[in-house]
Amino acid sequence: MTDQSVWQNAPLPATVDHVLERFHETHRRQFASIIPLAQKVSERHADKVSADLLPLVQHIEAELASHMMKEERMLFPMIKGGMGRNAGMPIRVMMMEHEDHSAVLQQLFDLTDNLTPPADACNSWQRLYAELREFADDLLAHIDFENNLLFPRALNEEA
């Protein structure tokens, strides 16, 4: 459940756990499927698919993995430990990275005609774009949840 009203009043440690379970684990599962699909589509349709698609998807995955690791190893333990008021700098860094993630998603949309497969796209290509759409929607919800709920609460130390 990602209804922000529920999480607005939940204990901060539970809210962090929700982010880990709902978003971080979801993104890892998504990329376990997306990367092989992107490789397959890029190889089989090299004459039709932009040569930039696979490197861009791999870049998104690597940047997001690094971002989530920083949250999991540094920021989230601070928040769960009641030190949210002292987390201003890490939170600012994470929010700047969120802006970068949004910009890279826009690059993906631009490269793929807003994730619209060609009319003659094979099933794998259609599935890749559908999974990328689901990922993009989840990532934007993830960013919104952290920027507008978790981080402000942590900075105010609403435990």
From TrEMBL:
This is Iron-sulfur cluster repair protein DnrN. The keyword Endoplasmic reticulum does not apply. It is found in: Cytoplasm. Residues 17-154 form the Hemerythrin-like domain. Keywords: Cytoplasm, Iron, Metal-binding. It comes from Kingella negevensis. GO terms for molecular function: metal ion binding. Its main location: cytoplasm.
